[in-house]
Design brief:
By secondary structure, this protein is α+β, with helices and mostly antiparallel strands. It is built from five helices and eleven strands, in the order αβββββαβββαβαββα. The strands form two sheets. The chain has a nine-stranded mixed β-sheet with strand order 1-2-11-10-5-8-9-3-4. Strands 6-7 form a two-stranded antiparallel sheet. The longest helix has 25 residues.
């Protein structure tokens, strides 16, 4: 009887989790027209207190990553994004964008001290555009429910790829090349 009750409990937890994930996926708020999902606008600050918005990158392909210092997968992924930014910037831009694509790392609701200390420790602060999101609004606006989450946005502001979970350097390269060719 105990095994049966435990099995029922496990089934309830699995079904409940599935329902929560299903509802979360349906709550994505980027505007959608004819199966085209527009990247959500953001107005955030960088590590130096400069205001930055999506409009600042109009016409440019972007990779926007949502990360946090507490995320065990984010360290390796941030290192890989820094390498990809350097690689794709070598094609005609700077470490902070230009070239083929600009990579933006948006921190999830952590203080400047925490985020910057983390990116300094792993040596990527000067290789990516880091933005702070104290209200966690960007993550919520893309319907985030895993960590990390990354969107690939074309020059028209449309989300071409929404990747939930970590990526390695090969997948990052492949996704950037794929979305740049579309």
């Amino acid at each position: 009887m105990k095994k049966f009750l435990m099995l029922i409990g496990i089934i309830v937890v699995i079904v409940g989790g599935w329902l929560i994930v299903s509802k979360t996926e349906q709550k994505q708020t980027p505007q959608s027209t004819n199966n085209i999902v527009t990247a959500p606008d953001f107005h955030l600050q960088d590590y130096n207190g400069k205001n930055v918005s999506l409009a600042d990158f109009a016409g440019k392909p972007l990779v926007i990553n949502s990360w946090a210092a507490w995320c065990p997968f984010c360290k390796k992924e941030l290192l890989d994004f820094a390498a990809a930014q350097k690689e794709f910037s070598a094609r005609g831009g700077s470490a902070f964008g230009g070239g083929d694509v600009t990579i933006i790392a948006i921190n999830r609701a952590e203080p400047l001290e925490t985020a910057k200390k983390y990116s300094d420790e792993i040596g990527v602060t000067n290789n990516l555009i880091f933005l702070l999101d104290p209200a966690d609004s960007f993550y919520q606006s893309i319907g985030g429910f895993s960590m990390p989450e990354t969107i690939f946005v074309d020059g028209s502001g449309n989300i071409k790829i929404h990747k939930r979970g970590p990526m390695d350097i090969e997948e990052i390269r492949q996704e950037i090349q794929s979305f740049l060719q579309s």
